[in-house]
Amino acid sequence: MLIGINRILIERVIIMCRQNSCSCGTSLLVSIIIGVGVAVLFSLGILTNALVALWVSFGIGLAILLTLLFLIPLASTNLSPALKKCMCTYGKCLIAGSVGTVVTTLAALALELLIASTVLIIIFFLIGVALSFLIISLIQFLWCMINFDCCRQHDICR
């Protein structure tokens, strides 16, 4: 019974991804795995330039957030159906990832960067989750835009 349910779920995920509507759940699951890796690397002291990485992730999150503030009203107009479709599909994921990245990097920048700190290891886990979720959602958004425009003009996507 359980094997049949898993097979049905896997088939549904494959169908959703073929239609370019993979849910945020799949991205979040991959992001959690990446976040665990980032936290382990930080706790072992392998991330030597953690402060630089924090500022870079803060900049990426802020840039995407400001871009979304420009693109969301633009998507509400009927000028670009591709932007509207892709923003409706991936906009929530992009907002969650960018806000999460900005908030967690600000929390880490407010603390001293001590490797022995458990709180900082948890914050780096959250930064890893938020930033990887943002990057994966951005890739999905761009992929959606490319597929929408290319598939409408050429019949290569079927």
What does this structure look like?
With 158 residues, the protein is mainly α. It is built from 5 helices and no strands. It has helices at 2-18, 24-43, 50-76, 81-110, 118-153. Helix 2 runs antiparallel to helix 5 (118-153). The two termini are 33 Å apart.
SSE layout:
Elements: H1 2-18, H2 24-43, H3 50-76, H4 81-110, H5 118-153
Helix pairs in contact: 2-5, 3-4, 4-5
List keywords for this structure.
158 residues, mainly alpha, globular
Task: Write a concise synopsis of the structure shown.
The chain is mainly alpha-helical and 158 residues long.
Q: Using DSSP, what is the number of strands? A: 0
- What structural class results from the helix and strand content? mainly alpha
> How far apart, in Å, are the first and last alpha carbons?
33 Å
Q: Which spans of ≥5 residues are poorly predicted at pLDDT below 50?
A: none
* Beta-strand percentage range: under 5%
Order of helices and strands: HHHHH
- Rg is 18 Å
In DSSP terms (H or I, runs of 4 or more residues), the helix count works out at 5
Helix content: over 70%
Shape: globular
Q: Would you tell me the overall average pLDDT? A: 81
Q: What is the makeup of the main sheet?
A: none
